[in-house]
Amino acid sequence: MLRLLCTACSRFVCPPARRITAARGGALLAMVAAGIIAASAQDKPTPAVPPAENKPADYAGSQACQLCHEDIFKAFQKNPHHVVETDKKRGFENNACESCHGPASKHTESVSPSDIRQPAKLSPAEADRVCLRCHQNQPTHTGRINGSHAKNEVSCVSCHSIHKNGPNGLVARTPAAVNEQCAGCHKTVWASFQRPFKHRLPEGGMSCVDCHNPHGSLLPRQMQSARGNEPGCFNCHGDKSGPFVFEHGPVRLEGCGTCHEPHGSANPRMLTRHEVRFVCLECHANLPSPTAAAAGNGPLGTTPPAFHDLRSPRFANCTVCHQKVHGSYVDRAFLK
Ligand code: HEC
Ligand code: HEC
Ligand code: HEC
Ligand code: HEC
Ligand code: HEC
Ligand code: HEC
Ligand code: HEC
Ligand code: HEC
Ligand code: HEC
Ligand code: HEC
Fold first, then answer.
1. Which residue has a Cα nearest atom 18 of ligand 6?
2. Measuring CA to CA, how many Å separate 65 from each of 59, 78, 122, 261, 272?
3. Angle at the Cα of 155 (from 152 to 158), degrees rounded to 5?
4. Ligand 6 geometric centre to CA of 211 (Å)
5. pLDDT (tens digit, 9 = 90+) per residue, 60-79?
6. Using a 6 Å CB cutoff, which residues line ligand 2?
7. 291 half-sphere exposure, CB direction, 13 A CA radius
8. CA distances from residue 320 to 139, 197, 268 in whole angstroms, order as listed
């Protein structure tokens, strides 16, 4: 094996980081040096062993990688994937590196990057397959295959840095780190969170994954869910969830986004309009809203009774009286 390595090293210049360093101990250096001398003493052009290409690619074992990939090998001891190294059940005992990189004996001899699988250089679908071999039955990945990220070629490794340790290495955990990751691609969404009325994402108090599952979900827009298939908003805004005796049609049927801009708004309460009445009159008016009219529809809701003087400031803020606009247990007009 030593001779093998040395033939290799005499033909390649390893990048400094991967070079066998003094940190690995003088003994090994001495062995390698001896090997190099032994190898160079031979007739150089004659390969010491049959060319690597003729050998079946097989597993070399993680230990073999340590020699040239010291830093990665060391860091890997703290990686959650290190359990693959010792767990008999997963079938990669002592071969954890090769569970993702594939059989590597050919590469350990040739040291050629083209003789080793590098997931970051595969197509997204192929790269995902490497990960999903072990990860596909986990509940967090429901819908992954059909998720928007998978469909749009955003692979696992675009969000997960396998060899990075630390709290936000392999998995972004703190809200700030998650937001930074998502904002990197979703720039316009992030811009909405800079508006005056928004959830506390820019302050790091909340993150995109409080509302979205990056791996896909059973709801549209990869929304997180509450209690099965209800909108994930209810995980925090449970008081809006009901079931109410008197439901307000749009809350239940069309969802929170009918009246709110969940990514942030210029309007108080993250409403879609700058005054509450304009939100309501979109549906509760004699005249259909311009959009409804364009679609050939009349008003959606009932018209306010005649005593509502819609020009008077008294009626500008409908929710002063209709307090339970998300639904009521006692009053069909949502007054209480
Ligand atoms: C004899 C030294 C040596 C050994 C042993 C070795 N490698 Fe490498 N490896 C290299 C060199 C040299 C490169 C090329 C580095 C470069 O081009 O930057 C490399 C590159 C790689 C790459 C990147 C390929 C790419 O396309 O960018 C991966 C992945 C890799 N090695 C994995 C492994 C694994 C896994 C093992 C253990 C099974 C291993 N190596 C053992 C020397 C070695
Ligand atoms: C869970 C899958 C997985 C395991 C296990 C794994 N790797 Fe990797 N490795 C990757 C992915 C994905 C990349 C490319 C993306 C990246 O750099 O994060 C990579 C990149 C590399 C590279 C190239 C780094 C560079 O900077 O170009 C080397 C070398 C490497 N791995 C060696 C190893 C060694 C050695 C082990 C075992 C100690 C190992 N890998 C275990 C998935 C894995
Ligand atoms: C050989 C099986 C195997 C392969 C292949 C594999 N993993 Fe893992 N992965 C595991 C195990 C085992 C764990 C740790 C135990 C657990 O949390 O399930 C883990 C944990 C993780 C974690 C969570 C770490 C944490 O702190 O909760 C992430 C993220 C992850 N893997 C991503 C990937 C990605 C991305 C790939 C593909 C490049 C991949 N894995 C390939 C087996 C695998
Ligand atoms: C768009 C970015 C993104 C993509 C793509 C992605 N992940 Fe994740 N993943 C995350 C984030 C963010 C978390 C942390 C979620 C949390 O804290 O709720 C996470 C968490 C995980 C976990 C830890 C389990 C958990 O819920 O704590 C595993 C395992 C995992 N991902 C594996 C994968 C695999 C396998 C793929 C590819 C099939 C993948 N991820 C694709 C962003 C992504
Ligand atoms: C590498 C770039 C990238 C990263 C990082 C990324 N996304 Fe995406 N995301 C996309 C692309 C591409 C699409 C599909 C096109 C679109 O809808 O913008 C998408 C779509 C989405 C969608 C729309 C789903 C739908 O059905 O319309 C949501 C929600 C989403 N991403 C959330 C997230 C979250 C949350 C994160 C962070 C954990 C994240 N994304 C990180 C690229 C990315
Ligand atoms: C308070 C909950 C919430 C948070 C936090 C949130 N979203 Fe959303 N997001 C939604 C809702 C609700 C929709 C669906 C709107 C609809 O149906 O049109 C959505 C839609 C999307 C879409 C698809 C439509 C579009 O507007 O482009 C993307 C992409 C997206 N979100 C990305 C993100 C990213 C990235 C973050 C973090 C920076 C984030 N979201 C944070 C609730 C949230
Ligand atoms: C992780 C918990 C969480 C989730 C999930 C969540 N919210 Fe919130 N929401 C909050 C908190 C906390 C506040 C108070 C914000 C503050 O004062 O900074 C808030 C405030 C609001 C407000 C009122 C803003 C104001 O000015 O009073 C609206 C409207 C709102 N959320 C709508 C939604 C919608 C719609 C969804 C789902 C798409 C959602 N929220 C999901 C935690 C959450
Ligand atoms: C029919 C329009 C409409 C729909 C649909 C709607 N809201 Fe509201 N929401 C409002 C109005 C109007 C206010 C402002 C109330 C006020 O001025 O006191 C408000 C205020 C809020 C507030 C802040 C004040 C409070 O009562 O806590 C939260 C949180 C909230 N909504 C969450 C939600 C969630 C979650 C959904 C989806 C389940 C939703 N809203 C659906 C109209 C709506
Ligand atoms: C997206 C359209 C829409 C918006 C916006 C909307 N509503 Fe409604 N509202 C409805 C529908 C549909 C009904 C059910 C009407 C029915 O049963 O005939 C309803 C019912 C009501 C009722 C119960 C009385 C009745 O006719 O059963 C009141 C009161 C009411 N809405 C007030 C409001 C207020 C106040 C706002 C603004 C905060 C508002 N609505 C915003 C569509 C809307
Ligand atoms: C000063 C208090 C007050 C304000 C402000 C107010 N309403 Fe009302 N609204 C009422 C009362 C009281 C009723 C009658 C309830 C009943 O008949 O039981 C009513 C009834 C309604 C109804 C019909 C309910 C039914 O049973 O058919 C609608 C629709 C309505 N209001 C919409 C609005 C809208 C839209 C606004 C804002 C432009 C608004 N209201 C502002 C007090 C108010």
1. 257
2. 11, 16, 21, 51, 57
3. 115
4. 7
5. 999 999 999 999 999 999 99
6. 62, 65, 69, 72-73, 76, 81, 96-97, 99-101, 118-120, 157, 161-163
7. 4
8. 43, 20, 15
Nearest by Cα to 171 from 92, 102, 79: 79
Both tokens assigned to 143: 């819908």
Look at ligand 4, atom 5, and give the residue with the nearest C-alpha.
156
Task: Single out the residue of 160, 168, 167, 165 nearest to residue 141, CA to CA.
Answer: 160
CA count, 13 A, side-chain hemisphere, 321: 11
pLDDT value of residue 110: 94
Ligand nearest to the CA of 91: 3
More confident residue, 31 or 287: 287
Longest dimension (CA), the chain: 105
How many residues in total does the chain contain? 336
Q: Mean pLDDT across the stretch 15-20?
A: 37
Q: How far is CA 218 from CA 28, 138, 145, 205, in A?
A: 55, 14, 11, 26
In whole angstroms, give the CA distance from residue 120 to residue 315.
Answer: 60
Distance CA 18, CA 13 (A): 10
| Closest ligand 9 atom to 319 CA | 35
